Amino acid sequence: MTETIASYEDLMKMLDSLLREPEAFWDEFYQDRSKPVPIFADTPDENLKAYIKEGILTPGRALDLGCGAGRNAIFLAEHGFEVDAVDLSQSSLDWARERARERNLPINFIHKNIFNLDLEEGAYDLIYDSGCFHHIAPHRRMSYLEILDKALKHGGYFGITCFVQGGKLGGADISDWEVYRTRSLMGGLGFTEEKLIRIFSSLKPVEVRRMRDVSKGEGLLGVSDLLAGLFLKR
After folding, report:
1. Which range marks the domain in which residue 213 is found?
2. At 4, is the pLDDT very low, low, confident or very high (cuts 50, 70, 90)?
3. Considering the entire predicted model, what is its pTM?
4. How many domains does the chain have?
5. Rounded to an integer, what distance in angstroms lies between the CA atom of residue 74 and that of residue 42?
6. Bridge partners, residue 207, by sequence
7. Is residue 98 part of a domain?
């Protein structure tokens, strides 16, 4: 590979090389399934369940970005959605497929970087991201917004959970410029409600709030150090 920047994509690749956590990092992260990591539990996000229970989200075609071990993709499939679920880590997808097979759910798991997806125009009624966005460097937000603009139907929804700025789980309280000064995402960037609304200003905010803390017996993932947002494509 040459190190000459002659195009926008060359620039993106160069910046990725400075900041992106490599595929091997995430493969190793998911290999030890016994770790007490909240997202390893086979439970969906509390806000996602609430959107479905309240009738805001109804069955259609869904794309789960950074699906991990499949907990939200499985929940959507169980509630009538046709689900494509993508992740960079093969070990996370292996785990997700095992869980889906146990329930006989026909989820389409895709081993790819989300920015390398071949997406159909207006293909999805729902695009959902739980914990992927805060690991994406600022220069890739434009590429991320292009995914939503292309693949989400008019009248479709975008749902997201991410670190609260300065929260206990992570959520680095640094500026976008500081990311490049330090060449680090500090374990994951933090956001405020206002910042999420500003970043996704092409979409109409339906709800942006902290997640609700839930008890173990509820069978949900809910931690108030995470933000939950739901947006509508007008």
Report:
1. 153-234
2. very high
3. 0.95
4. 1
5. 9
6. 230
7. no
